[in-house]
Amino acid sequence: MKKEDLIKINDYTWEIPKSYRHDMRVPARIFISEKMIGKLLEEEALEQVVNVATLPGIQKYSLAMPDIHWGYGFAVGGVAAVDAEHGVISPGGIGFDINCGVRLLKTHVRYDEIKEKIPALASALYKEVPSGVGRGGQMTLSEKELDEVLERGAEKIVADGYGTQHDLKHCESGGRLPEADATKVSKTAKARGRDQLGTIGAGNHFVEVDRVDEIYDEQTAKEFGLFKDQIVILIHCGSRGLGHQIATDYIKRMLVAMPKYGITLPDRQLAACPFTSPEGQDYYKAMAAGANFAWANRQRITWEVRKAWEHAIGKGESLELLYDVAHNIAKTEEYPSTSSGQVKKMVVHRKGATRAFPGQPVIIPGSMGTHSFVMIGQKESLEQSFGTTAHGAGRMMSRTQAKHEIRGAELREQLEAEGISVRAGSVAGLAEEAPEAYKDIEDVADVVHRTGIARKVVRLRPVAVMKG
Question: Which CATH fold topology does 3-396+438-467 show?
Answer without folding.
Answer: tRNA-splicing ligase RtcB (3.90.1860)
